[in-house]
Amino acid sequence: MDYNTSELCDLFADSVDVVDPIFASYGGRYSFGGEITTIKCYEDRGLIDRVLAQSGEGKVLLIDGGGSTRRALIDSASLQLAIDNDWEGIVCYGSVREVDTLVDMDIGLLAVSTIPVNAESESTGDVDIPVNFGGVTFLPEDHLYADSTGVILSPEPLDID
Predict the structure, then answer these.
(1) Does the pTM exceed 0.90?
(2) Labelling 137: which of 13, 55, 62, 93 has CA 20 to 30 A away?
């Protein structure tokens, strides 16, 4: 489904939070949304791949990578894993790599930056905990909506039908 975050902000101004404009789009889908699953990790992608291997139908993976620009948390293999398991998209407060390949993949991907260096895979970090960045606190099971204009967050799914 395509979302228009500008219209959603107009319709639901009192019930959504707007994430600071810190992301660039690297995936092939510019609009995506769903219930979030959170991961907090720093320069370690092990938990990310483990979660992406699970069913992601109707879900968005939200990664708090501490905003690191030193190691990439997502690459084409991770994104293919997300596609294979029906994730709607990924928002990564961190870096990605292999961007020339990522842009051709049919999934939403927002990140802070790019770098060719891969992150470790020690699986350190936490899953489904509250995280805070971009001026917003993200809680597991909140609902995220993204498009080329921005990212918004709602504690409940927005009635947009």
Answers:
(1) yes
(2) 55
CB distance 34 to 142 below 8 Å:
no
Residue for token digits 């991907």? 109
What six digits make up the tokens of 151?
């990212």
Give the total number of structural domains in the chain: 1
- Which CATH number do you get for residue 85? 3.50.30.40
Neighbour count for residue 48 (Cβ, 10 Å): 27
Q: Are 53 and 39 in contact (CB under 8 A)?
A: no
pLDDT in tens, 72-102: 999 999 999 999 999 999 999 999 999 999 9
Query: For the chain, first and last CA: distance in Å?
Result: 11
pLDDT in tens, 145-155: 999 999 999 99
